[in-house]
Amino acid sequence: MPKSEDEHPYAEARKLASFWSKLKPMYPAEHEPPPEPKPKPKPKPEPNNLPPRPLPEKVFHEKVKKYRKLAKQAEAGDTAALDQLREQLGGDPIVWRTMGDIQRRTEHELIKKLFGTDVFARETFRQRISELRSQVYRPGDSIVTEMACSRVVTCWCFTQYFEYRALHEAGDRQLGNLLVQAEKRYQTAMKTLEMARKLDRERVKQRASDAKQYASTY
User: What pLDDT, in 10s, does the model give residues 91-149?
Assistant: First the structure.
C-alpha cells in the first residue's frame, strides 16, 4: 500500500526545498553585483596577401629620399647603414614594391622615349596602359596568370612603340626587324596567358572535385 506524502522518506527535504524557493532575496536588486562584461570580440587580422594601402605622394617621396640617403652611406662602406636600410625597407612594402616593379619602370622609360617632354601625351598613354591592365586581369587570377597578364601588356607597349617609330622612320630595315620580333613576343605572351588561364580553370575544377569527394566520405 503506498505511503502518504508525509510518510515519504524525502518528505522533509521536499518541504525545505519548497520553502527556500519561495523566499525573496535579502538584498535589493540594485545591490547585487553587476554582471561581468562580455569580452569584446578581437578584430580579425588582415590577411598578409592584401596589397598595402597607397601612401600620399609627398610621404612616399620623403620615404624614398630617406632610403636613398641610407643607400649612399651603404655604398660608401657603412655596413650599419646597409643593415638599417634592409630592416626599414623590409617593413615598408609599398615602397619596395613600387620601386622594385621593373615592369612599370620599363613602361615609364618607354613612354618617355615615345613622347619625350610632352606631359599630356605621356599621361594619356599611361592611363591607357592602366586601363588595359585592368581589362586583362580577372578576379581570382593566380600569381602566374597575373605575371602573364603583365607580360602581355608590356609586349603590347613595345609593339606599339616600334609601330609608332616605323611610321616616322619608314625604310629603316633594322626597325622593321625589331617590329617583327616585338609582334612575335606579343603573340607568345598571349599564348602563355591562355595556357595560364587554362591551368587556373583546371585547378578550380580539381579543388571542387576534391571538396565533393571529401563531403561524400564524411
Answer: 888 888 888 888 778 888 888 888 888 889 888 988 888 888 888 888 888 888 988 99
CA distance 186 to 167: 19
Q: How far apart are CA 179 and CA 90, in angstroms?
A: 40
Judged by phi (left if over 0) then psi (alpha if -120 to 50, else beta), residue 116 lies in: left
Per-residue CA distances from 46 to 50, 53, 88, 106, 120 (Å): 7, 12, 21, 32, 39
pTM of the model: 0.59
Rounded CA-CA distance 71/109 in Å is 23
Closest C-alpha among 164, 152, 159, 217 to residue 188? 152
Measured CA to CA, the distance from residue 126 to residue 199 in angstroms comes to 31
Residue length of the chain = 218
